[in-house]
Design goal:
single chain, alpha+beta, two-stranded antiparallel ribbon, 2 helices
Length: 85
């Protein structure tokens, strides 16, 4: 497991790239993002509508941030299991 702790910026980006690199994700890779019980799950999805930004950041859509009550400056715990990526 790989863990990170990062703040969300005003645009919903998470600038910590530790998790993105550990998973081997590159800018433009397609993702599926969902929320359930206050946990946000991001996974690869060839038909996903979300992508890793050109700078290699994860961008949380406004709807997801709203569902979880996240605001700019809030810190989030990131966790990834590269063995299952």
């Amino acid at each position: 497991m790989v863990y990170g702790l990062a703040a969300i910026d005003t645009s919903g980006r998470i600038a910590d790239r530790t998790i993105i690199r550990a998973l081997g994700w590159a800018p433009g890779i397609r993702l599926h993002i969902r929320e359930g019980s206050g946990v946000i799950v991001v996974r690869l999805d060839r038909q996903g509508v979300f992508t890793v930004t050109g700078q290699g950041h994860l961008h949380l859509p406004a709807a997801v941030r709203h569902w979880c009550g996240l605001n700019a400056g809030d810190r989030v715990l990131l966790a990834a299991n590269p063995a299952t990526a």
